[in-house]
Amino acid sequence: MARVGERLELANVEILPGPEASSLVLRLAWRLRGAGAWGDTLFVHVLDGQGRWVAGADGDALGGLLPLVAWPNGGLVVDERLLSVEGLDPGEYRVTVGAYNRDSGRRYRAVDATGAAIADGEITVATTTLP
User: Fold this and answer.
1) CATH number for the domain that contains residue 48
2) pTM of the model as a whole
3) How many CA atoms are closer than 13 Å to the CA of 73, on its beta-carbon side?
């Protein structure tokens, strides 16, 4: 589906209804090829129609319990993120994911399945329209 940095692959994405009407669950399946680095972490962002951040869920997998450095080489890690969209104005929104180093703040480059670069390292995994 897409690759982040040299070793992290986004294998699958599912969007599920959240426990409340104003939320959704993003289920991300990631695979690490090689060793993760200390300080590397994931981001999930909700962007408005102008590309501005309006909500997000940054952090390590499994609610912060599984940092990238502890992921099994080649194993699949399924991470669920709960996103609240409560209070957002009606309109179209994009949900994006990626990875960065929390010490430097630097995002990792992302490429799609064809090897084409993805702007800002933000992989768009869904678009949604809020009424």
Assistant:
1) 2.60.40.2060
2) 0.89
3) 3
